[in-house]
Amino acid sequence: MNNKITIKPYAPNIGAIITGIDLSKEISNSELKIIKDAFHKFLVIFFQEQFEITPENHIKLGKCFGDLHIHPAAPKMKNFPEIFEIHTDKNSKISNGAEDFHSDVSCDIKPPLGTMLQLHILPESGGDTMFANMYMAYDALSNPMKQFLDELNASHESEHFYKGRYSKIDENIKCPSAIHPVVRTHPVTKKKALYVNRFFTTQIEGLSKHESKLILNYLFKHCEKTEFQIRYRWKQNDMAFWDNRCTLHKAIWDYFPNERKGRRVTIKGDKPF
Ligand code: SIN
């Protein structure tokens, strides 16, 4: 691997490609600083020209950014409960569960701050992942709308989603729920980001069901405007590292019956404020 580290924006509004850091080896303090800075600046970073990293090294790498979060409901990889395996092929009756824009496990009281996903097997075509910038989504709102939303909290629930998907595999799954601000402040950058998503956000507190549904549907559509987004085309062994506090993402389910496989870890976050 060439040792010169390069960081190139993927698109003007979100994302960057990083080369020159070999994630299969221990990362140095200076590399760690470069990665953290790029993560906060670009919101999602894609490490290219990588080797497949072992589950042990993936866990070790994730821990450079904090303690690891364990998914409350998804099946655990044998011996590695921190790893969430992403896998669909010709036998998959449903997608990998990421086909709508979401922030990972936002139903947890302390949702994961970030996710590191490496894909090892890619379909011949398709299987891209989309990411959207939630600072931009917030900034694009009018001042009166910002003021209205700044005061609101919303429920994030998971039972409707996890029960059908995971309870056949394990009857003892946890289906957490939490109340989070509709607009959260990023603890590092201090910037405000919209924090609602189609998978988990079910009701804005204090509004009637009808009002909440209207506002949430408006916000979901707003967050998904193409100008806030990128669409990432994976190469084998690319590692994506996204910030769940200020982005949404969606895996496009367009490649069935081809195989797509990888592993992800998530890093524990704080209670949103
Ligand atoms: C996920 O939400 O972690 C899955 C993303 C993907 O499969 O591209």
Q: How large a portion of the residues is in β-strands, by DSSP E?
A: 25-35%
Shape: globular
What small ligands are held by the chains? succinic acid
- The N- to C-terminal Cα distance equals 41 Å
**Strand elements, count:** 16
Overall pLDDT, averaged?
95
How much helix, percentage-wise, in residues? 10-25%
Total helical segments = 6
Major sheet, described briefly?
8 strands, mixed
Query: Low-confidence runs (pLDDT<50, min 5 residues)?
Result: none
What Rg, in angstroms, do the CA atoms define?
18 Å
Helix/strand-derived category reads alpha+beta
Q: Which sequence of SSEs, written as H and E, runs from N to C?
A: EEHEHEEEEHHEHEEEEHEEEE
Protein traits:
single chain; alpha+beta; binds succinic acid; three-stranded antiparallel β-sheet
Q: If you had to describe this structure to a student in words, what would you say it looks like?
A:
- The protein is of the alpha+beta class and 273 residues long.
- Helix content is 22%, strand content 27%.
- It contains 6 helices and 16 strands.
- The chain has helices at 29-42, 55-63, 134-139, 143-150, 159-166, 209-223, and strands at residues 6-9, 16-19, 44-47, 68-69, 84-88, 114-121, 129-133, 153-157, 177-181, 183-185, 192-194, 201-204, 229-232, 239-243, 247-251, 260-267.
- Strands 1, 2, 3, 4, 5, 6, 14 and 16 form an 8-stranded mixed β-sheet that branches. Strands 13-7-15 form a 3-stranded antiparallel β-sheet.
- Strand 10 and strand 11 (192-194) form a beta hairpin.
- The mean pLDDT is 95.
- Bound molecules: succinic acid.
